[in-house]
Amino acid sequence: MTTYFFGYRLRVTVANLIAFVLVTSYAGTSLAQNPLQFTINENTVTLDAGQRPLWAYRYESVPFKPYIQKFYTPSGINILRDAPHDHLHHHAMMYALSVDGVSFWQEHEAPGRQKNLTLQDFVIDQNEGRPRARFTQKLDWIKPDTKEILIKETRTVESQLWQNQQVSLINWQTHLSYPDRKTPIKISGSHYYGLGMRFLVSMDKDGTFFNADNNPGTVFRGDEKLTKSNWCAYNALANGKEVTVAMFDHPDNPRPVTWFTMHTPFSYLSATLNLHKEPLVLQPGQCLKVCYGVALWDGKIDRQKVCELYQQWLNRAPKITTLRSK
What we know:
The chain has one domain: Distorted Sandwich (Beta-galactosidase, Chain A, domain 5). 4% of the residues lie in helices and 48% in strands. It has 1 helix and 25 strands. The strands form 4 sheets. A 10-stranded antiparallel beta sheet has the order 1-2-11-12-13-14-25-21-20-17, with helices on one face. A 6-stranded antiparallel beta sheet has the order 8-16-23-22-19-18, with no helix packed on it. The two termini are 33 Å apart.
């Protein structure tokens, strides 16, 4: 294990880790003031708030892509399902697209691979008085036959504690680029490619999707719908207890999110860039940045409360610049 401390940061440059814990990383702050705690083992990063789990991120010992394996409500209910028998490539909360015709979503017929390079910049601090924790991962997206690097990713996962609201919150940022490439890169994918979530079996079929504009969306096939709105939420029973999860679009993303939703034969929610109709082409030296928020509550949360959190999230969400030339 190799670690580097600089200021309030931790860098992990070797993926083969043996249980390492970072409780807090800045001077003069007690556990009561900032209870966030990272635990890093040989394949998973977990984040806890005191005795309460927030999420678990699987970064290694995965054949095709790292992903958020578990995401907990404030009362401790995990809502995510990993690699169900009907779709083994559905990994809880995952991010994948197609690059130059190579799919990084599906995991059959020679799929691409998101290869972990490093975990770095583990930070625990405060943002406007709210405890915050984040880390960054470097990945290469690799073509299966030639092992060519098609694109490079810098991925940041961040959480804040919202003291006056019983909610769990994740910020997901992805930065795709390949500055040394001399030819354009085509980003495309099916109508559900993006940041997607597969839910518990108990949350399938009977839940309710709703969004900021009460937009009914457009039917793509069956009960699959594509909807444009600032956010999309899903309310369902997780093992008999009501939960609500919402995904937020960032206004600086390269285009407004198109939400993919479905109920049958299982429920799914994904933030997409409408790539099946409008592929993105990155010219040499350009990069693509996206940022999404994912909020999770116990109980049934109405549209107004989701809107209120979304507005607060916008005030504190990271600023991004998309499709810019380096």
